[in-house]
């Protein structure tokens, strides 16, 4: 073998070893956060209805769940390079329990959090925004809608039309209250429960926004406010866009030139196929048994939980 050939082979081997070492070092640095400047603002996107788990309806979407929010926040909380977090919220609201669980995760995060409101951050969408350190909204953002709503469906007429008869065996006077028309007594019971959850919503807003409870009660009519109105009422801090929210988060963290890291909002499966697992399952059922069957099953299985 010629000397020149040996030199070339040696250089190739040396280059490969250097590249390997560089990759190993980069992986270690990114895993520990040691290789970053520590000037990162993490961006988490939350879009859709708020629920405890993946929706079961024919056209249900994954939406915003406590597990998803917790996973995203844990990633930011455990990353030493992340000094502040921006949460983009675009939601009409949803489940009371899920909204409260998400709000608690945000409240207990020690790193500064700025919420940037999209087209709508209403009801539960506002509930999960209230505990943030700062809130930025667009002038045309629809927000507020502080209140509680419950809706019940009496399917007896539909079952009668389809020729379906049901037999009910119950233990407990009100156990079947959601499978028929509510009595006057049951309406009062449910109103009492709704008022309790309404009070919890008012308390969360008052504490998160540092407002007087009585002042929040005056705003808690369930009405929507524009971003401009919300700022005047003290429900948001600033009017602006995405970059304004980034700048505010950086300011809270003492960062002059933030590195922006946007976390993916969807799983690989959802991004690749464009559907959630639940949607695909229901589409298959609709193909086999018909869409009317799937819709009826979804209505039958839906429990009328109160919603923010």
Q: Helix fraction?
A: 40-55%
CA-atom Rg in angstroms:
26 Å
| β-strand number | 8
**What about the largest sheet?**
8 strands, mixed
Number of helices: 12
Judged by helices, strands and strand pairing, the structural class is: alpha/beta
Q: What sequence of helices (H) and strands (E) makes up the elements?
A: HEHEHEHEEHHHEHEHEHHH
Could you name the CATH homologous superfamily?
Answer: 2-enoyl-CoA Hydratase, Chain A, domain 1
Spatial shape: globular
In round numbers, the mean pLDDT is 82
Number of domains: 1
Terminal Cα span: 78 Å
CATH topology: 2-enoyl-CoA Hydratase, Chain A, domain 1
Q: In CATH terms, what is the architecture?
A: Alpha-Beta Complex
Break the fold down into its secondary structure elements and pairings:
Elements: H1 3-32, E1 40-47, H2 66-77, E2 82-91, H3 96-107, E3 113-122, H4 124-127, E4 134-137, E5 142-144, H5 156-162, H6 184-209, H7 213-219, E6 224-226, H8 227-233, E7 238-239, H9 242-253, E8 259-262, H10 268-273, H11 277-289, H12 291-301
Parallel strand pairs: 1-2, 1-8, 2-3, 3-4, 3-5, 4-7
Antiparallel strand pairs: 5-6
Verbal overview:
48% of the residues lie in helices and 14% in strands. Helix 2 packs parallel to helix 3 (96-107). Strand 2, helix 3 and strand 3 form a beta-alpha-beta unit. It has 308 residues and is α/β, with parallel strands linked by helices. Strands 1, 2, 3, 4, 5, 6, 7 and 8 form an 8-stranded mixed sheet that branches. The radius of gyration is 26 Å and the shape is globular. The protein is built from 12 helices and 8 strands. It has one domain (37-301): Alpha-Beta Complex (2-enoyl-CoA Hydratase, Chain A, domain 1), CATH 3.90.226.10. Residues 28-36, 55-61 and 268-274 have low confidence and may be disordered.
């Amino acid at each position: 073998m010629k000397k020149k050939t040996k030199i070339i082979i040696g250089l190739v081997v040396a280059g490969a070893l250097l590249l390997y070492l560089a990759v190993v070092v980069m992986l270690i640095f990114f895993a520990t956060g040691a290789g970053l400047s520590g000037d990162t603002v993490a961006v988490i996107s939350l879009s859709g209805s708020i629920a405890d788990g993946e929706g079961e309806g024919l056209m249900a979407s994954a939406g915003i769940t406590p597990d998803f929010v917790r996973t995203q926040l844990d990633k930011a909380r455990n990353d030493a390079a992340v000094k502040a977090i921006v949460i983009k919220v675009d939601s009409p609201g949803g489940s009371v329990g899920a909204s409260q669980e998400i709000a608690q995760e945000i409240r207990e995060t020690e790193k500064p959090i700025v919420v940037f409101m999209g087209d709508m951050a209403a009801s539960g969408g506002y509930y999960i925004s209230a505990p943030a350190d700062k809130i930025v909204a667009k002038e045309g953002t629809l927000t507020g809608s502080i209140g509680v709503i419950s809706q019940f469906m009496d399917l007896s007429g539909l079952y009668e039309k389809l020729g379906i008869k049901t037999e009910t065996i119950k233990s407990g006077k009100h156990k079947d209250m959601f499978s028929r028309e509510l009595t006057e007594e049951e309406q009062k019971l449910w109103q009492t429960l709704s008022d309790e959850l309404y009070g919890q919503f008012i308390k969360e807003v008052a504490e998160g926004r540092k407002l007087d409870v009585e002042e929040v009660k005056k705003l808690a009519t369930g009405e929507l406010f524009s971003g401009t109105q919300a700022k005047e009422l003290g429900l948001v801090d600033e009017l602006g866009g995405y970059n304004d929210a980034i700048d505010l988060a950086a300011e809270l963290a003492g960062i002059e030139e933030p590195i922006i890291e946007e976390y993916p909002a969807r799983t690989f499966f959802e991004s690749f196929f464009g559907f959630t697992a639940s949607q695909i399952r229901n589409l298959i059922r609709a193909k086999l048994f018909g869409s009317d069957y799937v819709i009826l099953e979804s209505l039958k299985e839906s429990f009328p939980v109160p919603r923010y």
